[in-house]
């Protein structure tokens, strides 16, 4: 049975439908062949990318109706209540106090909604509502069916030139950013700069700005770089996946706590997703503002960056706001 992906790039009118089979066994590197591919990875997969090399490709019209055979997994979501989440925050803060390299851990949780979705209609609605986001609908034999509208670029590649973003901080209004949020953004930016420096990549960066994503606002710094060889991108992906914006700093210690505390395997949430084109360009995104669909339900994910200054109750409500925003965006 064929697997597929529907997707639309930001600020472009075309909607692409690619059908084929995902390769789950080979370790795929960007631009290792000359064909179009669509790549995805789980959270914390490094540069191990699952890829679809489409056997059929076409551009579809907005609201075009056609039959799609979706692959659904059995839902196995373990939900976290407020008391449990706040206790996890306290445990992370204790670890931060006792580990000098640990500054931030992104603690995620999932929620289950018992509602069947019209996935094709939802996809087209997202394309109309969020023209500046990467919108996709993908169905996989292994990962099931996912839909999303991600605002967060992981890597935007044009030959040897690329852009990446440091994105952190969350608020719902235009009030001033707090010390915690500014510090969190600085950590993410410095971490990405450190990774690029260790790889010998020449880069520049723009001033930090506030951007809107749905009903939320975030801090963003853009980093622009150049690689000597296209194969260098695989080392960048290995270094930066997952990003500190979805894992934490120091990354390995943060990931160890995530594995210990979170009730669910994140699967494709906060991994990498996007197309790689035969013209040596690629648009890869962090898989946020997404959900996994089941036959008669769906699961949403959201996380908050926990630091020594975090208020456990505030962090719980930040995830509540993000879940509500994701639901409004996607449903």
Overall mean confidence score, pLDDT: 91
How would you classify the helix and strand content by structural class?
alpha+beta
Shape: globular
What is the CA-based Rg, rounded?
A: 19 Å
Parts with pLDDT < 50 across at least 5 consecutive residues: none
Helix content range: 25-40%
Number of strands: 19
Strand content: 35-45%
Query: N- to C-terminal separation?
Result: 28 Å
Query: Mind summarizing the main beta sheet?
Result: 10 strands, antiparallel
The CATH homologous superfamily is named Anthranilate synthase
Any idea how many domains? 1
Q: What is the CATH architecture annotation?
A: 4-Layer Sandwich
Number of helical segments?
6
Q: How would you spell out the order of helices and strands?
A: EEEEEEHEHEEEEHEEEHEHEEEEH
Describe this structure in words.
- The protein has 331 residues and is an alpha+beta fold.
- The protein has one domain (3-330): Anthranilate synthase, CATH 3.60.120.10.
- The protein contains 6 helices and 19 strands.
- Strands 3, 4, 5, 10, 11, 12, 13, 14, 16 and 17 form a 10-stranded antiparallel β-sheet that branches.
- A hairpin with a 3-residue loop joins strand 8 and strand 9 (144-150).
- Helix 1 (82-98) crosses helix 6 (312-330).
- The longest helix is centred in the middle third of the chain and has 20 residues, at 179-198.
- The relative contact order is 0.22.
């Amino acid at each position: 049975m064929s697997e597929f992906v529907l997707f639309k790039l930001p600020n472009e009118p075309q909607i692409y439908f690619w059908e084929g089979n995902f390769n789950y066994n080979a370790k795929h590197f960007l631009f290792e062949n000359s064909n179009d591919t669509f790549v995805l990875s789980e959270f914390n997969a490094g540069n191990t990318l699952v890829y679809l090399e489409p056997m059929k490709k076409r551009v579809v019209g907005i609201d075009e109706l056609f039959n799609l055979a979706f692959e659904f997994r059995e839902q196995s979501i373990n939900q976290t209540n407020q008391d449990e989440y706040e206790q996890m925050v306290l445990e992370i803060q204790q670890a931060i106090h006792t580990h000098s390299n640990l500054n931030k851990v992104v603690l995620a949780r999932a929620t289950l909604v018992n509602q069947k979705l019209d996935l094709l209609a939802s996809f087209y609605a997202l394309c109309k509502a969020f023209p500046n986001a990467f919108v996709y609908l993908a169905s996989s034999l292994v990962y099931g069916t996912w839909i999303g509208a991600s605002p967060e670029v992981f890597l935007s590649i044009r030959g040897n030139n690329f852009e990446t973003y440091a994105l952190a901080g969350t608020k719902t209004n235009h009030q001033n950013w707090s010390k915690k949020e500014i510090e969190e953004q600085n950590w993410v930016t410095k971490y990405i700069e450190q990774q690029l420096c260790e790889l010998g990549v020449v880069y520049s960066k723009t001033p930090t700005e506030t951007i809107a994503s749905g009903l939320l606002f975030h801090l963003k710094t853009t980093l622009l770089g150049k690689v000597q060889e296209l194969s260098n991108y695989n080392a960048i992906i290995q270094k930066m996946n997952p990003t500190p914006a979805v894992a934490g700093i120091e990354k390995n210690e943060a990931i160890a706590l995530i594995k210990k505390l979170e009730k669910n395997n994140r699967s494709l949430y906060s991994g990498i997703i996007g197309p790689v084109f035969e013209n040596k360009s690629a648009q890869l995104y962090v898989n946020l503002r997404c959900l996994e669909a089941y036959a008669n339900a769906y699961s949403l994910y959201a996380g908050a960056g926990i630091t020594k200054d975090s208020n456990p109750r505030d962090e719980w409500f930040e995830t509540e706001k993000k879940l509500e925003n994701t639901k409004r965006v996607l449903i």
